[in-house]
Amino acid sequence: MAKKPLGKDQFGIRKVMRGGDYFADSMGQFALNAVSGMVGQLTYFYTDKAGLAAGMVATVFMVTKIIDAFTDIIMGNIIDHTKPGKERYRPWILKMAIPAALMMLLLFTVPKGSAGLQVAYMLITNLLMTSVIYTAIAIPYASLQVVRTNSSEERGKMGVYRALAGYVPGMAIVLAVIPVTNALGGTQSAWIKFAAVVALVVALCLLLCYKKSRETATADGITEQPLEENGLDEAIPLSDAIGKLFGNKYWVLALIMGLISNVTYGLANSSGTYYCKWIYGDDNLVAILGAVGMIPTILGFALVGPMNKKLGVVKTLRVSFFLGMIANILRILNPTHFWYNTILGCVSSFANIPMMCLLGVTTAMAIDYNAYKYGNRMVACSQSATGFGGKIGNGLGAAVVGWCLALAHYDASMTVATAATRQAIYAFNIYIPFVLFLVMFICAVKFDLEAKLPEIKEELGKRRSQK
C-alpha cells in the first residue's frame, strides 16, 4: 500500500519525515544523554567507590571542562573540511558508536595504584570521552537537523523528539544507578556492570540513528536539496567562518539565547537546595520540588509541538520567555510562601522547555541565512560554536550561585540565614532568572527570520538554477 504523501508545512516547504524517521533520529540524543548522565555520576563514583580524593577529582573535572569547551569548534572545522562529494555527518555517528561504548567501560575501570597513576587515568579517559568521542558525535548529529529537512516545522518536531528522548536516559540513570549498583554489591565491579549495560544501549541507539539518518531532504522519491548545494558547503578557513558567523545577526541572537538558556538550566539545577534550606527552613522539601517539577516538564514536552505548529518557532519562544518573566515578577511579591513559589516555579520550568527543544531550529534558520548572505552554510562550524556557548552557559549558571553566596559571606554552619544570604538566594532564584528571561524575550522579538525563510529558499533556488 502506497504511503500517503506528506504535503507541505505552513510556509509551503515540502515535508520529508515520517514517525519512524523522528524516532530513529531521536535515538542519537538518547545515546548522547546516556553518556552525559553516566559522566555526571563520576564524582560520586570516584570519591566513594574508587576511593579518590575529592579535591583531586574536582581539579581533573575543571581541566577537562576547560579543554572540552574548545574542542567543539575544532571538531566543527574538521567536519566542514570533509572532501566534497562525501557524506559529512552520518559517518561520524557510525565511527564513534563502538568507541563510545568501550570508553564508557574504561571510565569506571580506574586502576589501583599511586595517586599519580589514577589522576592520569581519570584525565585521559574523561578527555577521550567528553572532548573527543562525545564531541565527534554531538556536532555531526546537531548538523543533521539542518540537512535532513528544509521545514522549520519538521525541524521543530525533531527538536521535541530529541529533547524528550534525551530527558529519559538522564532521569533513568539518576533514579537507577544507586539502587541497581547497591543491589549488585555496591562495589566498583557493580558500577562497571551497570556501565556495560548503558554502553550497549548507547551503541545500539547510535547505530539505529545512523541507519535511518540522511544528509538530504528526501521523501517519496523526491530530493529537495543535494548534499553540496552547489558550493554552499565549501570549506573555508576557521577564522573566516567565525568572522562571518558573528556578522550574521540571527546566528548571534541564537547564540545568545542558547547561552542564556543554559545559564538558567545551571541556576535551576544548583539553587533549589539553598532556597529550601534557608528560605523555607527545610531542605527535605527539595524532594517535593523535584516531584512537582515533573508536571511542567511533561506538559512542556507535550505542548511545545502543538505550539510550534500553531504559532511557529519564534512566537512559541516569545510566549514561553514572557511566561518566565511574569512568573518571576510575581514571585517577588511573596518569596517565602512554599506553594505560591512552587507553582510559579513550575511556570518558569515550563518556560524553559521550548528553548530546550527549539534551539537547534533557530540555529538551523541562521544557517540557512548564512547561505543567503554569504553563499556558504558553514553547517558544522555554526553548530559547534553554539555548542561552545551551551557548555560555557551551563558552567556559568552553576558559578553564579557560588558568586552570589560569596558576596553574601555565606556560612554553611549558621543556624539562621543572614539578610545578605537571603538576598543572595533571592538573586539567583528570582531576580537573575527574570533578567535572563527578559533578555531572551528581547532576542526572540528581534529574531524575525522565520517569516522570511520561504523567500530566502526561493532566492537560493534561483541562484542554483542559474549555475
Label this structure with key terms:
467 residues, 1% strand, 15 helices, 2 strands, globular, Growth Hormone, Chain: A, mainly alpha, two-stranded antiparallel ribbon, 77% helix
Short structural summary:
This protein is mainly alpha-helical.
Give an overview of the whole structure.
The two termini are 39 Å apart. The model has no long low-confidence stretch (mean pLDDT 85). This protein has 467 residues and is mainly alpha-helical. Helix 5 packs across helix 13 and helix 10 (285-311) packs parallel to helix 12 (338-374). The longest helix has 37 residues, at 338-374. Helices cover 77% and strands 1% of the residues. It has helices spanning 19-39, 42-49, 54-80, 90-107, 115-147, 152-183, 188-212, 238-246, 249-280, 285-311, 313-333, 338-374, 379-407, 419-446, 453-466; strands spanning 218-219, 222-223. The protein is globular, with a radius of gyration of 23 Å. It has a two-stranded antiparallel sheet with strand order 1-2. The chain has two domains: 19-212, MFS general substrate transporter like domains (Growth Hormone, Chain: A, Up-down Bundle), CATH 1.20.1250; 243-466, Growth Hormone, Chain: A.
Distance between the termini: 39 Å
| Low-pLDDT residue spans | none
CATH topology group of the largest domain: Growth Hormone, Chain: A
Tertiary shape: globular
Give the class-level CATH name of the largest domain. Answer: Mainly Alpha
Tally of individual domains: 2
Listing every helix as H and every strand as E from the N terminus to the C terminus, the arrangement reads HHHHHHHEEHHHHHHHH
Within the largest sheet, what's the order of strands? 1-2
Class by helix and strand content? mainly alpha
Give average pLDDT, whole number: 85
